[in-house]
Design brief:
The structure holds two protein chains of two kinds. By secondary structure, chain A is mainly alpha-helical. Helices cover 73% and strands 2% of the residues of chain A. Chain A has a domain of 214 residues. In chain A, helix 11 packs parallel to helix 13. Chain B is of the alpha/beta class. The complex binds adenosine-5'-triphosphate (ATP) and magnesium ion.
């Protein structure tokens, strides 16, 4: 089973490396956007694991995108620096939003994050001298990495792939460490976690800021890849989509948001930007809630169950010793 | 005879002022209800003290106050000489005051071992760097320490079971194991043997004594009178949030006011 999984990952990795060779610019473009969506979805997970419903992740992407774009455009800052600044700014903004509001429970925190999406959109819209407001920010330079301008779509594709893999590696290491265990514990029973000495306020804040940082990374790449920023892009629709990636993919495993983001953004590609996009995501969410509450990652298990009968996957109860 | 010894022992402890926990006029109102009302509680180092009383007497509220989960309306809490009245739960634990919960509270989707590993939280050397660059999920010494605690509480064979799949009795004991992993100086146990059969409760009470013998002071809330009388050296009785009586098990169980309070509340609770 493990060997099969490793094999699948290797084949998948090779395919991803070969996309620019096999497909045209269209696929390169689509896949680079899929990678940013994967970064966004996976970076929401730490907060979700802590039991915090963040419905405003797109706002932090927006912060990273505008910050990096403006630094590169106005001050000719190289991509690696502007991206880092954008990501750090997103994390600092996350600190400012999270510090007062993470003490709020469940739905109140969610409401703060929703409101924040609008705040960021309005700032981007109204601060015309800096952001050009509703005319959109154009003329963003292509990513200039370590002194080399990534002029071709293919090279930008590899940058996206690299950023996604690095993000996933870091998030995976953290989730599978003691820190991840603490996040899970807070999500499962925060009072018990407190009773064992966990400072839940600090850990929720750290998980949240971590997510904001990588949303900023995704935003920075997006800015220099699309090279045009328009405030409403980072609105409520994108924020809920990031959440939907997590639920449709599955909340129970690190792979959930990755699978969810890849699956949904590839499938919704034909409707991107149209009214059908919302409908598509609503239906996907509805179907998941109704038929696959554990998300897509539980699908193989469910299929095996159907095929081999219930006994195959039913775990035996612990022997009462 | 044995009773004499115990009384004089607790007397001498009080004189030598090895007072670990001390509350003054501890009070908590919920709306118009005084759930805990001017309670002066004293626990000396090394004691096993029982905190009993009919349903709704304020025992759990007392625990919530002591452990920082709720703030008192009035009164102070001192632990080892330090005023901890306004501390938050994780700060209280840091000082060595650890509580368990009346309703079984576990990390249901984690294994027994992972549950106990979380109990070690305060004693783990953790950093972002270690999380990012270590090849192991958890430091081996922490895993070893957790296994020791599981062994000590008789849960060694359940280390890899998900908490939710454990039988009720083991779930209750796992709660104690996690608290122990936090290395308490004072352990607050809220009804540790609820819903256990005679055999199981006997084993848990023996465990509580062993825990005390290893140097942990214990404050025990329990409705099972057999367990309380057989384990505690001193008992404090609460009724309607106030201290009704205090003394040795023999004194308390023959106290007219105590008997009346329990009869008033129905004998069923007293039997547990
Ligand atoms: N959060 C709360 N809000 C309002 N009232 C509360 C709250 N917690 C406890 N109470 C009330 O305070 C009183 C004492 O409750 P507490 O849980 O401390 O009793 P207890 O002695 O632990 O009882 P039991 O033996 O049934 O566990 C009860 O009347 C209860 O209804
Ligand atoms: Mg209670």
């Amino acid at each position: 089973m493990r060997r099969l999984r490793v094999g699948v990952l290797i084949v998948l990795g090779l395919l991803l490396l070969l996309v620019p060779q096999l497909g045209g610019d269209y696929y390169v473009h689509v896949f680079a956007l899929v990678f940013t969506n994967v970064i966004l979805a996976a970076s929401l997970r730490p907060s979700l694991t802590c039991g915090q419903l963040n419905i405003g992740h797109s706002a932090f992407m927006s912060v990273g995108a505008y910050a990096s774009a403006l630094l590169a455009k106005n001050l000719a800052v190289p991509f690696e620096v502007s991206m880092l600044c954008g990501a750090l700014l997103a994390a600092v903004v996350g600190l400012a939003i999270g510090y007062p509001s993470l003490r709020l429970r469940g739905v109140y925190f969610a409401m703060v994050t929703v409101a924040f999406v609008e705040v960021i959109r309005l700032i981007a819209q109204l601060w015309v001298p800096l952001t050009r407001g509703m005319s959109g920010l154009s003329g963003i330079p292509k990513p200039n990495l370590l002194g080399v301008t990534l002029a071709t779509k293919a090279s930008q594709y590899y940058l996206a792939l690299f950023l996604m893999l690095l993000t996933l590696l870091i998030l995976w290491k953290l989730e599978s460490s003691r820190l991840g265990l603490i996040w899970k514990s807070i999500g499962m029973a925060d009072n018990l976690a407190q009773s064992l000495g966990v400072n839940i306020a600090n850990h929720k804040l750290l998980a949240f800021m971590l997510g904001c940082f990588f949303a900023g990374v995704a935003g920075a790449f997006y800015a220099h890849f699309i090279r045009f920023l328009f405030p409403p892009e980072f609105g409520f629709l994108m924020a809920t989509n990031i959440l939907v990636y997590n639920y449709v993919g599955g909340r129970g495993h690190f792979a959930g948001p990755i699978v969810g983001a890849a699956f949904l953004s590839l499938l919704s590609e034909p409707f991107r930007g149209s009214a059908y996009e919302t409908i598509f995501f609503s239906i996907a969410m509805l179907l998941t809630i109704l038929f696959l509450p554990g998300g897509l990652i539980t699908l193989p298990g469910k299929l095996a169950e159907l095929r081999w009968g219930k006994s195959a996957s039913a775990h035996s109860p612990s022997p009462a010793a | 005879m044995g009773e004499e010894r115990i009384r004089s022992q607790s007397e001498s402890r009080r004189v030598s002022s090895a007072l670990l926990l001390e509350t003054h006029g501890l009070t908590r109102h919920f709306g118009g209800l005084a759930a805990v009302n001017r309670v002066d509680l004293r626990v000396a180092e090394g004691e096993i003290v029982g905190l009993i009383g009919p349903n709704g007497a304020g025992k759990t509220t007392c625990f919530n106050l002591l452990s920082g989960f709720i703030r008192p309306t009035a009164g102070t809490i001192r632990f080892d000489g330090e005023d901890i009245t306004r501390l938050r739960p994780h700060q209280v634990v840091k000082r060595g005051l650890v509580r368990t919960f009346q309703l079984t509270t576990l990390f249901q989707e984690l294994t027994g071992l992972e549950n106990v590993l979380l109990g070690l939280h305060l004693h783990s050397r953790r950093s972002l760097g270690r999380a990012l660059f270590s090849r192991r999920r958890f430091p081996p010494d922490e895993v070893a320490r957790s296994r020791e605690v599981l062994e000590f509480t008789g849960l060694a064979s359940q280390a890899d079971q998900l908490a939710r799949n454990l039988p009720h009795g083991h779930q209750r004991v796992l709660g104690i194991a996690m608290a122990l992993a936090a290395r308490p100086r004072l352990l607050l146990l809220d009804e540790p043997v609820t819903g256990m059969n005679l055999d199981e409760s006997g084993r848990v009470m023996a465990l509580v004594k062993t825990i005390r013998d290893r140097g942990v002071t214990v404050l025990l809330v329990e409705h099972n009178m057999k367990a309380v009388m057989g384990t505690c050296e001193r008992i404090v009785v609460l009724n309607f949030g106030q201290t009704l009586a205090e003394g040795s098990p023999a004194e308390v169980s023959t106290n007219a006011k105590v008997i009346e309070a329990y009869l008033g509340a129905g004998l069923a609770h007293a039997r547990g």
